[in-house]
Every structure is written in structure tokens, then in C-alpha cells.
Design brief:
two-stranded parallel ribbon; 2 domains; binds uridine-5'-diphosphate; alpha/beta; single chain; seven-stranded parallel sheet; Rossmann fold; UDP-galactose 4-epimerase, domain 1; 9 helices; binds nicotinamide-adenine-dinucleotide
């Protein structure tokens, strides 16, 4: 296959580029580098089956030659980023999804949308199955991200129904691993950096909120299986192993061998407004139709991620 991966210079996008190349496919990564970095793909520059194109996917997309699959990952998923760029976030979810869908239709390509557990908002159903419609505040600060993805899902299904486009929707739950941006504000890079630098780990509020963390290699394998399947309706991918943020801070400290203290703070900005209290994927559908489930435990994944950050920070 010759595949287009938008957001290909980002964290998950760059791992997907690696995965598709390893499977023997040709990959075109497209990214405007608003938060991504060519550092994530520099090891691929010069690869005969890899091409990077700097382009904003909210603008018209043109590529010569056939394309078999489009994977649309371009977005601003970190709360710090979408709070800083609310309009860009809405535009990439709306206009960017429209442009990439139109491009896939023109090429007769299969299309995969990277959606998110955030479509469930602050969930009233736990764990979250795909059938749950969610509990999102459309006018709150997080709404720009959540609604951009809800719109993107609706647009993807509309292209499927109206144009017969062959589409897939993956709802990704918190994923972590090497190449996360050090300053993207998400809990994994924040805690690991703080633990390695001997700074206090900043747990927001009481630390009672929960998340379920999936290692990136498990996720990309699931995305590949979904693309190759014939499932059009959304599929959750994530690791159901749920943990409070307080426990997570303890775990990061232990794995990093850190003596950093843990502090409990209430951010003065909008970072924790409408912050989901719990989140855990129901992955029965992925198990059933993709034969997929995560293999990497939180301890193992964190060890690999901490090692990567240690090297990145020049600490070894
Ligand atoms: P990331 O920020 O590392 O990657 C996103 C990439 O999109 C960046 O490289 C950015 O430069 C690029 N981008 C943004 N707007 C663009 C535009 N208009 N044109 C071209 N490129 C643009 O984020 P990530 O964690 O790798 O997330 C990838 C995808 O997975 C996103 O769609 C995100 O919503 C989804 N997702 C991620 C998680 C997670 O835990 N990491 C959870 C749920 C969903
Ligand atoms: N969080 C925290 N300290 C930090 C960063 C995040 O306590 O330094 C909390 C945040 O409030 C949320 C959870 O960790 O409850 C996960 O946050 P993240 O931004 O990683 O992802 P989210 O799941 O909210 O999109």
C-alpha cells in the first residue's frame, strides 16, 4: 500500500510511519509541525519508501499518484495545546477531516480517523463501550477538542453513507511512549520529566481522577488491524488497566528511581475544568473483531518510556 498519514511528525503518527514501513508499505507523512517535530521522523529521512510533506491539512491536499489508505491523525490533542490554539483545534478536526476525506474519496482510498475517548467527555457510564454517546460540555474549554472529534466522526460517517467511502474510526484512549513531547503538558511527560529532574510531581487537585494508559506499540498494532478489518463503526483501543493519578505519580517515581516529592496543586487556568473524573475503555469489541488486546504492562511500558526520556534529556 501507499499510505498518507496526517500528523505523521507527531507522537503516534511517527510510530505509525515506522510500523507501516516495517510492514513493507510506502508512507507519506504530512504535518504542518504546529506541535510535531521532524525529530520524530529524522531516522526515516532518506528511506526509499518514505516521504515527508510539510502541509496544513485544513488547506487543499494534492498528491500525485495512487493512495490506498489515508490515516488522519493531525490534531492538537494535548490540553495545553488545544487551550492555547482553540480555533486551530476546531479547524483541524472540521476542515482537516473534510479535506482528508475528500482526498481519500478522490483517490479511492480507505480512510481511518483517529478519534478519541474524549468523545465520551466526563463519562456517566464506566467503563466506556462504543455504544455510549458521551457527556461533553460543548461550550467549556475542552469542548474545542471534544467537539472537533465528534464532528470529525459525524463527517466520516457522512462520507461513508453519502459517498460509499470505506471508512474506519478508532477511539484512542490515553496512549504514551517514547517521542511524547516533553512540554506537551500531558501527565506522562510531565511526571517523567519531573521525576528525572528531581522536581515535584504536580498532581492536579486530589489525584483521585483515573486514567487507563496504553503503550504506543500496542496502539499502532490495533490501528493497523482496524484498518485491515471491515469494521466501519467506531472501535475503542486502549489498555483497560485503570489507575488514579495519585497512584500513577507513585509508580512513575518508583520506576524512575526518583526521590521527588509529590505535590497537589489546583491549576489556576482551565486545564482541569470538565476534566473527566474516570476513564477506562471497554475493549470487548476490539478483542472480538480484531483479535486485539494490549500486551505491554504499565510497568514495562513506563520503563521503556523513562529510559527514552532519560536519554532525550541527556541524563545518561
Ligand atoms: P501529537 O500532537 O504528537 O500529534 C499530532 C500532530 O498533528 C502534530 O505533529 C501536529 O503538528 C499535527 N497537526 C496539527 N494540526 C495540523 C494541521 N492543521 N495540519 C497538519 N498537521 C497538523 O499528538 P498524538 O498524541 O500523536 O495524537 C495523534 C492523534 O491521536 C490525534 O488525532 C489525537 O487526537 C489522537 N489521540 C491521541 C491520544 C493520546 O493519548 N496520545 C488519545 C486520544 C486520541
Ligand atoms: N494531570 C496531573 N498533573 C499533570 C498533568 C495532568 O494531575 O502534571 C492530570 C489531569 O488533570 C488529568 C490526568 O492527569 O486528570 C490526565 O491528563 P492528560 O493531560 O495526560 O490527559 P487527558 O486524559 O486529560 O486528556
Amino acid at each position: 500500500m501507499r499510505v498518507l498519514i496526517t500528523g505523521g511528525a507527531g507522537f503516534i503518527g511517527s510510530h505509525l510511519c515506522d510500523y507501516f514501513l516495517e510492514k513493507g508499505h510506502t508512507v507519506i507523512a504530512m504535518d504542518n509541525l504546529v506541535t510535531g517535530s521532524t525529530r520524530n521522523i529524522e531516522h526515516l529521512i532518506g528511506h526509499e519508501r518514505f516521504l515527508f510533506i510539510k502541509h496544513d491539512v485544513t488547506e487543499y491536499i494534492y498528491l500525485k499518484g495512487p493512495i490506498d489508505a489515508v490515516l488522519h491523525l493531525a490534531s492538537l490533542p494535548s490540553p495545553v495545546d488545544y487551550l492555547r490554539h482553540p480555533i486551530k483545534t476546531l479547524k483541524v478536526g472540521a476542515l482537516g477531516t473534510h479535506k482528508t476525506l475528500g482526498f481519500a474519496l478522490a483517490k479511492g482510498a480507505r480512510y481511518l480517523l483517529a478519534s478519541t475517548s474524549e468523545v465520551y467527555g466526563d463519562p456517566e457510564v464506566h467503563p466506556q463501550p462504543e455504544s455510549y454517546w458521551g457527556h461533553v460540555n460543548p461550550v467549556g474549554p475542552r469542548g474545542v477538542y471534544d467537539e472537533s472529534k465528534r464532528f470529525a466522526e459525524a463527517m466520516t460517517m457522512a462520507y461513508h453513507r453519502a459517498h460509499g467511502l470505506d471508512t474506519r474510526i478508532v477511539r484512542i484512549f490515553n496512549t504514551y511512549g517514547p517521542r511524547m513531547r516533553l512540554d506537551d503538558g500531558r501527565v506522562v511527560p510531565n511526571f517523567i520529566k519531573q521525576a528525572l529532574l528531581g522536581e515535584p510531581l504536580t498532581v492536579y487537585d486530589s489525584g483521585e481522577r483515573t486514567r487507563s494508559f496504553c503503550y504506543v506499540s500496542d496502539l499502532v498494532d490495533g490501528i493497523y488491524r482496524l484498518l485491515m478489518s471491515d469494521e466501519v463503526e467506531p472501535v475503542n483501543l486502549g489498555n483497560p488497566c485503570e489507575i488514579t493519578i495519585r497512584e500513577f505519580a507513585e509508580k512513575v517515581k518508583e520506576i524512575a528511581g526518583s526521590t521527588s516529592p509529590i505535590t497537589y496543586i489546583t491549576p489556576a487556568d482551565d486545564r482541569t475544568r470538565d476534566d473527566p473524573r474516570t476513564r477506562r475503555p471497554d475493549i470487548s469489541k476490539a478483542r472480538r473483531i480484531l483479535g486485539w488486546e494490549p500486551k505491554v504492562s504499565l510497568d514495562e511500558g513506563l520503563r521503556l518510556t523513562v529510559e527514552w526520556f532519560r536519554e532525550y534529556l541527556g541524563l545518561k
